[in-house]
Write a structure and sequence with these properties.
Number of helices: 7
Shape: extended
Radius of gyration: 21 Å
Order of helices and strands: HEHEHHHEHEH
Structural class: mainly alpha
Number of strands: 4
Strand content: under 5%
Length: about 200
């Protein structure tokens, strides 16, 4: 079977999926991910994806790995909803999940109200909403500009059509450096991680 080229698109869903930010990479469970832990997690991800053990990642292997991860996320979401672990969702469980989401939205609304309700009248005036939108817009723009400054490293560095372990690990090292915002050699919770809200907005666009 002919190997297909894994170009920039395979910006290592592996490392880019932010292995480092996940609890699995925090091997000693100290709440931080060192470069050694990040590297070990990237190595494990490469081995996991390279199902034919030839030392290269094909497009088929990448797609299969992404599909498996997608299924795992679906199973995790189902397990969260299935409160009694009986393998089926009842109306009560679905409603409970809806109420939980509603409570989170309400908590976020109250947080914004407390921050931007400067005259303490219990609601946001047009002027207060303008200030809030301007501040949140500046934050989003700052994150976007920051993300655009650095060009993503290419996986297939030598352009031979294959992604070797060495190329994969080289990109992993570059990603660690970019994610380590304060350059202290460890990743703390949230460091280098994309905001979920931003990702949701991108999908919806």
């Amino acid at each position: 079977m002919t190997r297909k080229i894994l170009k920039t698109a395979l910006l290592v869903s592996a490392a880019a999926c932010l292995i480092a930010a996940s609890p699995k990479a925090d091997l000693n469970q100290d709440g931080e991910v060192s470069k050694a832990e990040f590297t070990q997690a990237a190595e494990a991800r490469f081995v996991e994806t390279d199902t034919n053990n030839d030392g290269f990642l094909s497009e088929e292997e990448r797609k299969a790995h992404k599909a498996a991860k997608r299924d795992a996320r679906k199973d995790k979401r189902f397990a969260r909803l299935d409160a009694n672990n009986d393998g089926a969702l009842t109306r009560e469980e679905i409603d409970a999940a809806g109420e939980a989401r509603k409570a989170k939205r309400e908590a976020r609304r109250k947080e914004k109200l407390e921050k931007y309700d400067t005259n303490l009248d219990g609601s946001l005036s047009d002027a207060e909403r303008t200030v809030m939108k301007a501040e949140l817009g500046d934050k989003r723009k700052g994150r976007k500009d920051k993300g655009q400054r650095a060009e993503r490293p290419k996986m297939d560095a030598n352009g031979d059509g294959f992604v070797s372990r060495q190329e994969y690990m080289s990109v992993s090292e570059q990603l660690f450096t970019r994610m380590d915002a304060n350059a202290d050699g460890v990743l703390t919770k949230g460091e280098g991680r994309k905001r979920k809200g931003k990702r949701r907005g991108k999908r919806g666009g």
